[in-house]
Specification:
19% of the residues lie in helices and 34% in strands. The protein has 588 residues and is an alpha+beta fold. Strands 18, 19, 20, 21, 23 and 26 form a six-stranded antiparallel sheet that branches. Strands 12, 13, 14, 16 and 17 form a five-stranded antiparallel sheet that branches. Helix 6 packs antiparallel against helix 7 (150-158). The longest helix is centred in the N-terminal third of the chain and has 16 residues, at 124-139. The protein is globular. It starts with 9 loop residues before the first strand and ends with a strand.
Amino acid sequence: MMLNRSRLLIVALGCGLILTPASRFFAQKPDNSPAQAQPANGQNQEVDPLKRERSDKEKFAAQKAVRQELKGAYKTWLDQDVTYIISDEERKAFRTLSNDEERDAFIENFWLRRNPNPDSPENEFREEHYRRIAYANEHYPAGKPGWKTDRGRIYISWGPADSIESHPSGGSYQRPIEEGGGSTSTFPFETWHYRYLEGVGENIDLEFVDTCQCGDYHFTIDRSEKDALLHVPGAGATQYEEMGKGTKADRFKGGMESLGTGPGSQGQESKQFDRIELAAKIFAPPPVKFKDLENFISEHKLLSGPVFPFDVRTDFVKVTESTVLVPVTLQMKNRDITFVTKDGVARGVVNILGKVTTLTHKTVQTFEDTVEVEQPAELLEKSLDRQSVYWKALPLLPGLYRLDVAVKDVNNPDHMGYYGRSLEVPTYHDEKLATSSLILADVMNKVSSREIGSGNFVIGNTFIRPRVSSPTPANPNPPVKFNRTQHLNFWMQVYNLQIDEATKSNQATVTYQIIKTTAASAATPAAETVILEKQMDPKDLGTHSDQLTVEKTLPIAGLEPGKYKVTIKINDGISKQEIAQSAPFVVE
């Protein structure tokens, strides 16, 4: 990657070299003026005090003065904003900088080194980092800002846990049998479970205990710390201790944890080292994800193993005059995913990496996710004929792009798939009647107020899961398929309706049709028959807005198997503009 920047600070951390802008472009020029010339008589010239080598004491004093200069926004940035993600070498280098110009250049390059899309005008890493700080401050304060707490630190470094077991009041707790069994009373505690953390491992459990009962949950690798009766004589005995197979004093004979003994507890001591190693890893900065898929997309490698097929659908929804939301929907057959069965559960895991680039190969959006498909092992065979769907909404400016998507079957690393197509994001001109994509969906419903505008498959206040077709070389744009037991859901938005100044309302009429299509044959030409036509009530659409959302759910049990299409027509009574959208579907 080449960075075309006029002011650039390069930090060579490996050798401790700092090359400032001035030293990059200007060399020391000898001064031959008479005042600096060597004396003719060869006598020693008096040493310039600015050029003589400083003593260790003087160097220490200068470094201390520099550290004292670090204040205000720079001190906040170093000691608060990035304190969990900056390396020791970077911290040391930043503290040796002598002026604000160098510090600004350092901060700029600090974020550039961590940007997953170096060519993007937005730094997704930095934006997500500050969002996590704000979330931690809101949800994990404990007499101090949330970012300073252990829960806040873990959240900022690794994001939200996949699941949280919370015991905010502590109370009765049943020990696992390998810890001796029996019940005890606990301090408030939480266990955060991560299914997978890159560079750390799988099925990671992190425990936080509030021993002061003041809301300050601290991270612990000692599972016995949550036991409120651990140090209370005669209380909180394990089941094995009550059976005379040990005493409470045995718990304190060494080791990091003071757990009771029971079946399978012999390996607890060796696992203590694993917990120490986990703590070291969990407080280290997370590594970059999916480097193999990134190289696969960037280098356009040929598939060396079996192809992992999947289908992609893109839609367009206007957000503002200059921004379009582009939902990208991926669909893959469960039969193409490799499942691994463990503990009665069949689990398939797929890594997904997508990239949107301009015609000049500048990256403007990326997304990467791990998708898991789980089924009870006994139901796996029945689920193989089903399909799994993934959804990601990307905000883009109008224009022509390229969309690349790569997927990897984690349980079968050679099983990869690739999709690459042009992507033309439309421009929604003012004064011109326009619509979003017409989306046919198998599921559509309203969401709660807390979910509006966020979450998978959510557009505005509607959850809508698009049906995705499976193109073939013979038919690159096939219709989507519905079963007669399903409902047909369709969704579309209308933009730029004119408003009557007197009534402050639009005069739009919206009509939808279900049309049966019959293919041409040698005997009969192609035909279309309208089997349902209905005009929608303006009151249901919003008469006082220049934008309408058309959404409808229809049962299709009465439709015969065959080919159909939905057509929505809009007539603007004020501007006299008309527009229509159609989408084909098949009833099986």
